[in-house]
Structures are given as C-alpha cells and as structure tokens.
C-alpha cells in the first residue's frame, strides 16, 4: 500500500508522513500527477488560509488531479485546512471555490467561541465508519478558526465548541478530519489506521 501526501507548500506534510511511518504505512510526499493517480490512497494536509491553499493547488495543476482520482474511486483524506478544501466554498477572506468533493461551505466560528479553536476537544461519533470506530469520547487536537457547515448526513463525528464542529466528514470515498490526527496521540493513529482500512477495501473492489 502506498499513500500519496499532496505537496503544495500549504500543509504539514512531514508530520503526517511521520505518523504514517509510525504505523507502518508506506507514503510519499508528492505533487506528481502520475504518482498521485497510481497511489492506493491520498492525504491532503493543510495549514494556513483557504484562498492561498486553493491557489497553490491550482498553480500545480492538482485540482483536476484530485478530482480525477476521487472520480475513479481513490480514497482521499483531507486534514485540517485540507478537510475544508474538500467542500464547495469558503468565506475566508471573501468567497473562494473549493474542490467540491463534499457538499458544504466553510465559515468563521461564531463570536460566542474563542477564536481560534485550539487544543484538545472530545469527539462525539454520529455515524459508524472505519475512521470513527471506538472514537466516541476520545480527545483530538484542533487548530482552526473556520469550520465546515454541511448536511448532517456527511458528518461522521463532531465536537462541541459553542457550536457543533464537524470533526470527521465523509462523502463516499472522500473523508475529512478538521483536527490533526497526526497530533492526536493514539486516537489519531487509530483514525489513520481506519483510513488504511478504507483504502484496503477500495483496492479489493477495483
């Protein structure tokens, strides 16, 4: 199994790679179309601002590559900002179109909450999936000022932060984690193992 970690200068690629190394999943940090399309699964990490991240993906011709990979059934996991990029659009610094892989919109956390949402928060599992198995009540590490607004059918797990924060979202073979699995200790490693299960299942069906 090989996971392609998308390299677009807007993600904490090395820490994601180290976490995958730790649980024995082969991975490569890449922006090469052929390598991405031939990988068994894809992780799109992300830190920073939504518009700059989308511009960086566009500059490297990666938007069409990611959409093509997903259309062919390749499992994709977006992490933190990478999860937000999966949605249709964001209001961060004005309107910016996203990848459109999970229906929804990204908006600023309400002023009833301390911004940014930074630190450990508890997951409440809403739907069963390999990524949410045994995760109900576990704590994961968040760092974000914007959050996903999407239909409940796409929300696998959430956290309470004055508003319900979608922590894990999914649409068919596309998954997103608003928190950082690679910084969330054992719970985060188990979520990455769950993504490995998704990839194994998808590979067996192709």
- The DSSP helix count reads 6
Gyration radius (Cα, Å) is 15 Å
What portion of residues is helical?
Answer: 25-40%
Q: Which homologous superfamily in CATH is the superfamily?
A: Class I glutamine amidotransferase (GATase) domain
- Report the order of strands and helices: EHEHEHHEHEEEEEEEEEEH
Largest sheet: 8 strands, mixed
Mean pLDDT: 96
Form type? globular
The number of strands is 14
CATH architecture field: 3-Layer(aba) Sandwich
Would you mind describing this structure in some detail?
- The structure is a single chain.
- This protein is an alpha/beta fold and 206 residues long.
- It has one domain: Class I glutamine amidotransferase (GATase) domain (Rossmann fold, 3-Layer(aba) Sandwich).
- It contains 6 helices and 14 strands.
- The chain has an 8-stranded mixed β-sheet, with helices on both faces. A 4-stranded mixed β-sheet has the order 6-5-7-11, covered by helices on one side. Strands 8-10 form a two-stranded antiparallel ribbon.
- The chain is globular and about 45 Å long.
- The protein starts with a strand and ends with a helix.
- The model has no long low-confidence stretch (mean pLDDT 96).
